[in-house]
Amino acid sequence: MNLVEFESVTKRYRLGEVEVTALDSVDFAVRKGDFVAITGPSGSGKTTMLNLVGCLDSPTSGEIRISGQPVSGLEDRALDQLRSRSFGIIFQNFNLVPVLTALENVMLPLYLHRQPRAEMRRRAAAALASVGLTRFADFRPDQLSGGQRQRVAVARALVTEPKLILADEPTASLDTASALSLVELMKQLNTERQVTFVFSTHDQRLLQHVSRVVELRDGQLSSGKAPRAEEAGATIPLTSDSEVA
Ligand SMILES: Nc1ncnc2c1ncn2[C@@H]1O[C@H](COP(=O)(O)OP(=O)(O)OP(=O)(O)O)[C@@H](O)[C@H]1O
Ligand SMILES: [Mg+2]
Questions:
Q1: In CATH, what number is assigned to the domain containing residue 183?
Q2: How many whole angstroms separate alpha carbon 165 and alpha carbon 1?
Q3: Beta bridge pairs of residue 18
Q4: How many domains does the chain have?
């Protein structure tokens, strides 16, 4: 079964007299274990699409299904539950809580899962270990580098063992070395632990490691288009996936 299915999904925003079609009849599917990049120019609809995948927003028309379940018609509570069980989200600007330590930041999503505190600490410590930050558990965000903060954000997205991790331009504020190590970490979680990733990027450093790229242009999706190896300077063979949706 597909984790995520979009069937002719359209999203329009109205700003006064002006209506913007941010997504236009998009068909899209994510399977377990996918590592999918959404790319496209600024304003093409990437953030809109990720927000819809993560059920943070609802479509103007069309159907979205998560693990086969139609999202439309779900009550707020059921939607909250679906979100907290299904998704881990990594934001572009990390969104860490500045007064909490790395470990406490990673524990946050677990509060929704109502577990004993010792169990939450154990799971948060394991998630921090999986991103190589055990030594920094007691550091606050302002005591960490940008790359380390983004790793804390990855650990926080992982800690609930979600079906799918969503990331909006996860490397946008990172230098090349930190960006590459973040991509390697995501790729490793994907291959070793079958964590499914859907993320937006126009970062060629990231795209060259991605096996499936979908491209948005003015809210329309063209699928299965991987960047040409010579364009991306790829060292890893790219496989395009033409079986989208
Ligand atoms: N809340 C909103 N209200 C009105 N229009 C919006 C809203 N959010 C997005 N849009 C419009 O929808 C279109 C797609 O925006 P979106 O943020 O999804 O693009 P993007 O591909 O993520 O761009 P970027 O690469 O700059 O982040 C744009 O034309 C934008 O102006
Ligand atoms: Mg965006």
A1: 3.40.50.300
A2: 17
A3: 15
A4: 1
Domain boundaries, position 227: 4-232
In the predicted structure, residue 234 carries a pLDDT above the cut 70? no
Ligand 1, atom 31, lies closest to the CA of 43
Residue 237, in any domain of the structure: no
Residue nearest to atom 1 of ligand 1 (CA): 13
Give the integer Cα–Cα distance in Å for 17 and 43: 19
Average pLDDT taken over every residue of the chain: 87
pLDDT in tens, 71-129: 998 998 999 889 888 999 998 777 899 999 999 999 999 988 888 999 999 999 999 99
3-state secondary structure 101-160: CHHHHHHHHHHHHCCCHHHHHHHHHHHHHHCCCHHHCCCCHHHCCHHHHHHHHHHHHHCC
Interatomic CA distance for residues 190 and 33, integer angstroms? 7
Pocket test for ligand 1, best of 14, 17, 20, 60 (most atoms within 8 A of CB): 20
Residue 14, ligand 1, Cβ within 6 A:
no
Regarding the beta carbon of 46 and ligand 1, being less than 6 Å apart is answered: yes
Mean pLDDT of 198-203: 90
**With contact defined as beta carbons under 8 Å apart, do 221 and 214 qualify?**
yes
Q: Taking Cα atoms as reference points, which of 42, 48, 2 lies closest to residue 163? A: 2
pTM of the model: 0.85
What is the percent of the chain with per-residue pLDDT over 90, rounded to a whole number? 63
For residue 63, being part of any structural domain is answered with: yes
- Render pLDDT for 157-174 as a digit per residue (tens, 0 to 9): 999 989 899 999 988 888
Residues 6+ apart with CB under 8 A from 74: 82
